[in-house]
Design a protein that fits this description.
Layout: H1 2-12, H2 17-69, H3 73-87, E1 90-95, H4 110-123, E2 128-131, E3 138-144, E4 148-155, H5 163-204, H6 218-264, H7 269-293, E5 302-305, H8 306-314, E6 322-326, E7 331-334, H9 336-353, E8 357-363, E9 367-374, H10 408-418, E10 422-427, E11 433-440
Parallel strand pairs: 6-8
Antiparallel strand pairs: 1-4, 2-3, 3-4, 5-7, 8-9, 9-11, 10-11
Helix pairs in contact: 2-4, 2-5, 5-6, 6-7, 9-10
């Protein structure tokens, strides 16, 4: 029971912190105002309305009794003038008329309901008629006698307290003012959290964050400060790793270059060629290590047209082997060189093990989907996760390239994940490998 209620509340309640906090602040104010309104309406306004209506009907009953007991027209004229002067009544005596057949009283109006109840107790249910709708400030009341109709006009404030409008005004305006102040206050309090969450999202995509400043409440300032320290430590670690591998690569290239020069001067050319091939492979391994270390490089994000980028990449390959099925003009924000390197890795992988590569671009709800298919030997399903591990190679079918060290897909995955996307593998329609890349806008 409680689990179902919790699930329902999670679906109904807003997801953002600002609106949840606004509900916490505004809900008690609204509930309190509704409760006060109900109590006032029930215990004060209705009772006051009932007492005023009862007093009015007593005055009308007195007028009716005096009218029935006095047949002198001069006396009746004097009586109506006195009522007009003292009670603000306008009385008309109509001969030969009947009460209107149509009902003009409102069924759910407290004023009409109270007047109807008191008139029924005194005059019955068929001998009177009243209208509270036609005139804004007046009530038209008609009472049936034996041969005549007594028509009485009296102000509505005689049966409805005028203070109710002022009460509703003073009840509503301060509540709206308090909620408005709460909205401004909550906006200022949640703004630093929103900035912190956006900074974390940008940092997760590999962007450089240099505009993060602690603000807001003490707890939020501390969280922002600690996040900034953590971000700097991570950037320092990545920078040190890149510098270390760059230094190792540079130090190793010098002796390798000397070895290549010495091999070029050897008399045994066959042996020299074999040793030169090994040295070339070692240089490529060093380049792969360096490329892997720099996959988190500090490159600024820019607007990228994925369709145009793929067209530029495919210019370097055989058109008969590469086909761009659809090239929509879809613009995302990211680090251009890294995304280009990732797509080049995937395309070269397909060309290394297949005769044809098909590339398709699709626009999704929140990003772009890039599908790269080839007709190569493919990868077993149980190896889909393993091939993303650094230095992992599949001996029986394929690695990223035939002379590589198993870093191509790892680098591609790092680049895609650093942009907030994901990459997955499956079997293509040609029984080869299908690489599906998703990048958010």
């Amino acid at each position: 029971m409680s689990f179902g209620l919790n699930s329902l509340l999670k679906k109904i309640l807003p997801k953002r912190l600002f609106y949840r906090a606004l509900i916490i602040v505004a809900a008690p104010v609204i509930i309190l105002q509704i409760t006060i309104s109900i109590v006032f309406f029930d215990s004060i306004w209705i009772k006051a309305n009932k007492g005023m209506t009862r007093s009015l009907v007593s005055e009308i009953e007195t007028l009716f009794d005096v009218y029935k007991s006095n047949e002198n027209k001069n006396n009746i004229k004097q009586l109506t003038d006195i009522y007009k002067k003292n009670f603000d009544f306008v009385i008309n005596i109509k001969t030969g008329e009947e009460l209107p057949k149509t009902k003009s009283d409102r069924r759910f109006s407290p004023m009409d309901r109270s007047l109807r109840r008191e008139m029924k107790n005194v005059f019955g249910s068929e001998d009177y008629w009243f209208d509270t709708v036609t005139y804004i400030e007046l009530v038209d009341l008609r009472i049936q006698t034996e041969n005549e109709i007594i028509q009485i006009f009296f102000p509505k404030d005689k049966i409805a307290p005028s203070s109710v409008r002022i009460f509703v005004l003073w009840l509503t305006v301060p509540s709206l003012l308090l909620i408005f102040i709460a909205i401004i206050f909550l906006k200022n309090q949640t703004r630093p959290l929103v900035k912190l969450s956006k900074a974390a999202e940008r940092f997760g995509k590999g962007e450089i964050i240099d505009d993060l400043r602690p603000s807001g409440a003490l707890e939020i300032r501390k969280a922002t400060y600690e996040f900034d320290r953590m971000m700097k430590r991570i950037n320092k670690h990545l920078s040190q790793r890149s510098e270390m591998l760059s230094g190792i690569s540079h130090d190793l290239r010098t002796p390798l270059t000397r070895l290549k020069l010495q091999l070029a001067m050897m008399d045994k050319k066959d042996l020299a060629q074999k040793m030169t091939a090994d040295i070339d492979e070692m240089e490529k391994m060093l380049n792969d290590y360096l490329q892997y270390a720099k996959s988190q490089s500090e490159e600024s994000s820019t607007k990228i047209d994925i369709g145009n980028m793929l067209k530029e990449i495919l210019k370097n390959y055989d058109k008969n082997r590469c086909e761009l099925v659809s090239a929509e003009s879809i613009v995302i924000e990211g680090r251009k060189n890294l995304i280009k390197r990732c797509l080049q890795n995937i395309v070269e992988n397909g060309l290394a093990y297949g005769d044809k590569v098909l590339i398709e671009i699709k626009k999704s709800l929140n990003g772009v989907v890039i599908i790269v298919e080839d007709n190569g030997p493919g990868i077993p399903k149980y190896e889909y996760l393993n091939v993303f591990k650094p230095f992992y190679r599949i001996d029986k079918s394929r690695g990223l390239n035939k002379s590589g060290v198993g870093l191509g897909l790892s680098i591609s995955q790092d680049i895609i994940k650093s942009h907030g996307g994901n990459i997955s593998l499956s079997e293509s329609r040609f029984k080869g490998l299908l690489v599906k890349i998703y990048l958010p806008f």
